[in-house]
Amino acid sequence: MDVRKFLCSNARMAKESPTFSPLYRQIKSLILQALEAGEWRPGQVIPSEQELALRFNVSQGTVRKAIDEIAADNILVRKQGKGTYVASHNDPRQMFRFLRLVPEDGPLIHPKSEPLDCWRAKAGQEAARMLAIESGAPIVIVRRVLKFDAQPIVADEIYLPGELFQGLTLEMLQSWNSSLYSLFETRFGLRMLRAQERIRAVAADREAADLLQVPEGTALLSVERVTYTYADKPVEWRRGMYSTADHYYLNDLT
Amino acid sequence: MDVRKFLCSNARMAKESPTFSPLYRQIKSLILQALEAGEWRPGQVIPSEQELALRFNVSQGTVRKAIDEIAADNILVRKQGKGTYVASHNDPRQMFRFLRLVPEDGPLIHPKSEPLDCWRAKAGQEAARMLAIESGAPIVIVRRVLKFDAQPIVADEIYLPGELFQGLTLEMLQSWNSSLYSLFETRFGLRMLRAQERIRAVAADREAADLLQVPEGTALLSVERVTYTYADKPVEWRRGMYSTADHYYLNDLT
DNA sequence: AAGTGGTCTAGACCACGTC
DNA sequence: ACGTGGTCTAGACCACTTT
């Protein structure tokens, strides 16, 4: 596909049109479209920069700049000498990419997920708004506990659009011995690309207190997360209760 | 200064030496050194890419890549057609760059800082470790409240190395009607470049409850922050108690 | 018109991994 | 030896701002 024409027309109308975007962003968009369409699967290599340059009829440097931006978003991973790979939540290094909770002392242990329930329901007002679906549309709700070294630290309630997660069952969750997003990617073809968290301090209600084995009323972190896939489409809404007696939420500000 | 020689020697010893870094990173380092030395002041333009290329005897593209990385760290700001500027906390857009707290409803209001106390002390074990100074070294402690629309929402206790903040007084803080970091930059020549926060949920003690006008025992966010200047030198340690009834801590995960 | 950063190209060479 | 991404260069042209 030759996109040069797009650039030229765009470049010419740049002053009048706010929709102008440079060539490398058009290439970026085309590569993202190919990724979304599943042309290259998570964990696989994508074609070399030279091949993509030929395919899109631009120079290698322009493809490079497009890939640079996609790699900056953690959607592609460059490996010198080998090629550029589609990032995957099956990769151990990406596995708990979105979990910011770390132990106060001691090493960075990978937590273990223990699913408790999984059932279907209709989306309420809030879930519908967060997931950008119709109120009353089918959803799947999952409850689970995250344990660090056998200690229950996080109690999650997870809301998923039913349409995208047909066939998700408690048994499937329990038999999957890796991260949740790795399951979503592998079984449902959904790649979690970015998320936004809203954090508050709340008093533990009865349920959270039981699950986390703390007294009722203990101060807990309430972490609400909306997770997005391609085209900023929300595909998960969850609320986690974090016990922060021996752990803290770590955040780098730049 | 000609750095080409560095590259060549470095390039040759690349395989044997782990200290190799590409030319553009050496340029980046030199530009950061010049910034740290105060060669260009916050808010001012730095020399054009062409001038810097001549000065360092490299191509413009190499300078560009160096500046790109520094701009990505929010230390420089590019402005097409005008030049590249040294970022400043006096810039309204940078003013509350590190504050992640936003109102539940309503617009993004800039909070107002109300300093309460400012006194000198000797660093305890914890403050010394966080600030990377000797235990017992002089420090300055500031207490203040942050108000959103007249409501007290954040109670801060701020620890600063005494050596770097000589002459800081409560009066100075109270008469400064802009952000704290803007004061630090303007009066003490200290640029806050990045920070790391550790977040927990805690029950409000008597003092925090009084300041934030909430019942004792209310769940609050405890936000500990260490802020760094050039060369990753820590220059501030603070703990904030955030009242999250009508506000939340917003965090983007990528 | 002149100067700045932004984009695009083409070519050379280096570093890394595989064959 | 070969192919990949990584670095560096030089030059052309575009877009934005100021003179």
Features:
six-stranded antiparallel sheet, 254 residues, Chorismate lyase, disordered N terminus, globular, Arc Repressor Mutant, subunit A, homodimer, 2 domains, DNA-binding, 29% helix, alpha+beta, two-stranded antiparallel sheet
Task: Describe it.
Two copies of one chain form a homodimer. Chain A has 254 residues and is α+β, with helices and mostly antiparallel strands. Chain A folds into two domains: 3-86, Winged helix-like DNA-binding domain superfamily/Winged helix DNA-binding domain (Arc Repressor Mutant, subunit A, Orthogonal Bundle); 101-249, Chorismate lyase, CATH 3.40.1410. In chain A, 29% of the residues lie in helices and 32% in strands. The first copy, chain A, is built from eight helices and ten strands. Chain A has helices at 4-12, 23-36, 49-56, 60-72, 125-131, 170-175, 180-188, 206-212; strands at 76-79, 83-86, 101-103, 112-122, 138-148, 151-161, 194-203, 219-229, 233-242, 247-253. In chain A, the strands form three sheets. The first copy, chain A, has a six-stranded antiparallel sheet. Chain A has a two-stranded antiparallel ribbon with strand order 1-2. In chain A, β8 (219-229) and β9 form a beta hairpin. In chain A, α3 crosses α4 (60-72). The interface between A and B is medium-sized, with 29 and 29 residues. β7 (194-203) of chain A pairs antiparallel with β10 (247-253) of chain B, so a sheet runs across the interface. Chain A binds a DNA duplex (19 and 19 nucleotides) through residues 7, 11, 14-15, 22-24, 45, 48-50, 58-62, 64-65, 67, 78-84.
